[in-house]
Write a structure and sequence with these properties.
The protein is of the alpha+beta class. Helix content is about 30%, strand content about 25%. It contains 2 helices and 8 strands, in the order H-E-E-E-E-E-H-E-E-E. It has helices at about 15-65, 140-145; strands at about 80, 85-90, 100-105, 110-115, 130-135, 150, 175-180, 190-200.
Length: about 200
């Protein structure tokens, strides 16, 4: 009858088990950190893409209306008032024959558009203003970037903007700049978008 002997057979010692568990925890911790950073980076990318879309949409809306500014229903100058954070002018925003009073203005981090329809005979712009919030998370105030800048007939492509107080009658071109920052705690820098628009009805040539 043969006898079999098992030599050099043993289980893990407690020390070896602890070392293996420690190595596994390090690997798991590294994977979790990598996954967390990946999600954070993806979030930043999506925030930037959203800011870009918002910026293009805002600029398109503002430029389209400002370009078509014209005299009010009572014969007022196309631009009523112009500051670095607001612009009030008249244009036809709908399909009727009236010119509405349009106001773009920045309040805190929100860019809004207000519209007043003319009413009465003779017409007046004294009704309620219909306000629409167009974009949030604007960083213009914290970045010291003017929402609006204005140029007169002397503009030649590199001219400096008009200084405050702005005389609306002298305005011929408007520069719109937006600084959008979805989440200041993680965005590297605000997304900047700008556009220049010439007012058709105020061309001098």
């Amino acid at each position: 009858m043969k006898k079999y002997f098992l030599e050099n057979t043993r289980g893990f010692t407690l020390l070896e088990a602890l070392v293996a568990m420690g190595a596994m925890l390090i690997v798991l911790f590294g994977a979790a950190s990598l996954l967390s950073e990946t999600f954070k980076y993806n979030g930043i990318v999506w925030d930037q893409l959203e800011a870009q879309n918002d910026g293009r949409r805002v600029l398109q809306n503002v430029v389209d209306l400002v370009r078509r500014a014209e005299e009010s229903n009572i014969g007022g100058f196309p631009i009523e008032s112009a500051t670095t954070s607001s612009l009030v002018f008249f244009t036809n925003t709908d399909k009727d024959a009236d010119r509405e009073r349009v106001r773009f203005f920045l309040s805190g981090k929100t860019l809004s558009r207000g519209i007043i329809q003319p009413s009465g005979n003779p017409p007046r712009y004294s009704g309620a203003e219909d306000v629409l919030e167009m974009a949030h998370n604007l960083a213009n105030n914290t970045s010291n970037v003017n929402l609006f800048e204005y140029y007169d007939t002397a503009y030649a492509g590199t001219s400096t903007p008009m200084v405050s107080p702005i005389d609306p009658v002298q305005v011929r071109m408007v520069k719109i700049s937006v600084e959008l920052e979805k989440d200041p705690t993680r965005s590297p820098v605000p997304f900047h978008a700008e556009s220049m628009v010439q007012i058709r009805n105020l061309k001098d040539n």
